[in-house]
Amino acid sequence: MAETLFGFSANRRILAGLLVNLLSSICIVFINKWIYVHYGFPNMTLTLVHFVVTWLGLYICQKMDIFAPKSLPVRRIVWLALSFCGFVAFTNLSLQNNSIGTYQLAKAMTTPVIILIQTTYYKKTFSTKIKLTLVPITLGVILNSYYDVRFNVLGTVFATLGVLVTSLYQVWVGAKQHELQVNSMQLLYYQAPLSSVFLLCVVPLFEPLTGDGGIFGPWSLPALATVLFSGVVAFLVNLSIYWIIGNTSAVTYNMFGHFKFCITLIGGYLLFHDPLSLNQALGILCTLAGILSYTHFKLIEQEEGKSRLAQRP
Are the C-beta atoms of 295 and 258 separated by less than 8 Å? Predict the structure, then answer.
């Protein structure tokens, strides 16, 4: 009975984490797109604001005893911090240079890349059924790419780099949490300020400091308020990513991401009038079919794993 209650409680926490990630991830895409379209706020500076607000949020959390910081050697998380910079910067640049549909489309390819990385370098195995769920997802991506993609050369470069760096980052997040024996807040607490320092060093090289469009430019109060709100939402996104990957897996997080992909496409159509054809709608349905298949097979595998553990003497 106790095990059943514990399992129910754990599933409820996972569902809560997924819900927070769903709402915050969809919200951050539209807020950032709004900032780029209506205010022209510099991309890397916006990313830096996200990092700083994330660290401040975690600092407040640890002062409220929500979690206890754990001392970590900086050298063990340097590459994670660098990949975090690349992950956020390249995905934001992809969003800035592509339509929302194209941006989400590129992100959908993260799952196959993660499976390739985990299979090749971490010797992790995936069942045939799980691999086959990538087929409808890929078909959905192809339908959207054929009828929606409006890639330009620069957008293509940023989208490709975003997929590669994001895949590495998400694999490393799960690996580092297990390797260093830390929870999501403890790891992000050290990684966020380190990423902020790295980004602070390069922002002046790529973006103006003063004048129109500069970091210290004449921004309006609504623009600054929107940027600050974007940072708060980014804190929720970053925290929920770490929590979900630490409690499930990078592949599960990305399968959930495809669900967000479908919702964001519809939102882009409604808010920014991005085109959404019948063929794109079929692509969305195809992607959802893959997500539901993955969820079904993953739950079956988890139940079978629990049964095998229970049968052991």
Answer: no
**Residues 179, 121, 259: CA angle, nearest 5 degrees:** 80
Q: What is the pLDDT of residues 166-216, one digit of tens each?
A: 888 888 887 888 888 887 778 888 888 898 888 888 888 777 777 776 777
Q: Distance between CA 121 and CA 106 in Å, rounded?
A: 23
The length of the chain, given as a count of residues:
313
Cα 19 from Cα 205, distance rounded (Å): 38
Most confident of 16-30, 254-268, 290-304: 16-30
**147 close to 277: Cβ distance less than 8 angstroms:** yes
Q: Which residue stretches of the chain are H helix?
A: 2-38, 43-63, 78-97, 100-107, 110-121, 128-132, 134-148, 153-180, 184-206, 221-247, 250-272, 278-311
Six-digit token pair at 175?
């690996």
Cα–chain center distance at 143: 23
